[in-house]
Amino acid sequence: MNSTLATAAIESHRVLVYYQTQYNNNLPANSPFGHYVSPLPLIGLITHLLLAAWHINLADVSVHLNDFVPTDPFFAQMWEDIAVMQSTGIKVIGMLGGAAPGTYECLTPDKFDTYYPVLAGYIEQFHLDGIDLDSRAKDFGEDFIITAAPVASALVEGGNLSGFDYVALEATLGHQISWYNAQFYSGFGFFFPDDLYLQIVNFGSPATRIDPSRLIATTLTTPDAGAGFIPIDEVVDSIKTLSAMQDFNFGGVAGWEYYESLPGGPDQPQEWAQIMSDTMKALATNATVLAKSKAEASEAKTVNSRVVRRSQ
Predict the structure, then answer these.
(1) Among the residues of 97-194, which ranges form H helices?
(2) Which domain of life is it from (predicted)?
(3) Which pTM was predicted?
(4) Hey, where are the domains in the chain?
(5) Cα(241)–Cα(194) distance, rounded to whole angstroms?
C-alpha cells in the first residue's frame, strides 16, 4: 500500500466536539448544579473532545475552567465521565483562552515561568491528552497533542481575530502542531461552498502548505451558537466533495458546541456526532480502497515493465 496514502487514512477523518456547557439550565435539573450534560453519549462517535475553555487569571495566578477552578465540585461528574471516555480511546484536549481576555498575556516570556506551571499542574492532574499552541509538548511526552484554532481566513493571510501570523507559524513551527481547528463561521470563512477550504490547502508553496490531513473544519452545530451556521446536510455535502478531490485525505470536522447540537437539539445532542462519524467512516473506507487500488496498479505497472524489458 502507498505509505503516504495509508498514513493519511489513519491520521485523518477525525470527529471533534467542543464541550463547554456542562450544565444546561434550560432543562429540568438532574443534579445539585442544574441539568448535567453528559458527554458519555459521544463514546464511539468522536475521536477527540475539546474541553473549553481554560483561562489563566493574571491577578491571582490561578487557572479556571470557565467560571470555576478545575477541582471545584461543579466538575466532579464531568471528570469521572471524561476518564471513562479516555478509557475507550477518545482524546481530551483542553481549549485554552476563548473569549475571555488575559490568558495569553500570562504566557508572555516575562510571565511564563510564573503562570505556566499552574496550568501544567492541571494538565497532569486531569490527564489531558492535549492543549493548544502555548503549551510545551516536551513537558507531557511525545504523544501530547498541540493544536491551534485560528479563524479560517487567517490561514490565507486574511481576516484574523488574534493578529497572530499563522502562515509564518506553519512555515517555522508547523512540525510541532498536530493540526489546525479552523473556524469556518462568524464571517471568517464558510465551509459551504468550499472555496476557502481549497484556498487554505493550496495556499503558498508546496513545501509550506497545510496538508488536508492537518486541517479540521470547525462549524457551528446550531444557529444559536453564533453567526455563520451551515445546515448539517450541506456540511456533509462539502466534506464528501472536498475529500473526493483530495483522494479522501481529509483532516476531519469539529462542532461548536455539544450541548444543543442539531439535529437532535438539547435532548439528543450526540446526533450531530453520529452523522459526522458515519461520514468520516465512509471516507476512511474510500481512502483505504483507493490506496489499495493505486498500490495494485503500481505493482501491475512494475510487473509489466519487467516483462517488457525481458522480452527485448
Answers:
(1) 112-125, 166-173
(2) Eukaryota
(3) 0.90
(4) 3-311
(5) 8
Q: What are phi and psi of 68, to 5 degrees?
A: -135, 160
Cβ partners under 8 Å of residue 66, min gap 6: 20, 22, 52, 53, 55
Task: Return the ∠ at Cα 132 (arms to 214 and 229), rounded to 5°.
Answer: 65
C-beta pairs of 260-269 under 8 Å, 24+ apart in sequence: 260/21, 260/24, 260/221, 260/222, 260/224, 260/225, 261/17, 261/221, 261/222, 262/221, 262/222, 262/232, 263/232, 265/222, 266/24, 266/26, 266/27, 268/41, 269/37, 269/41, 269/221
Class of domain 3-311: alpha beta
Q: pLDDT (tens digit, 9 = 90+) per residue, 162-171?
A: 767 888 889 8
**Where residue 295 falls among pLDDT bands split at 50, 70, 90?**
confident
Least confident of 102-116, 141-155, 200-214, 252-266: 102-116
* Burial bucket for residue 3 (CB in 10 Å: 0-12, 13-18, 19+): exposed
Task: For residue 224, give every residue at least 6 positions away whose Cβ sits within 8 Å of its Cβ, in sequence order, or none.
Answer: 260
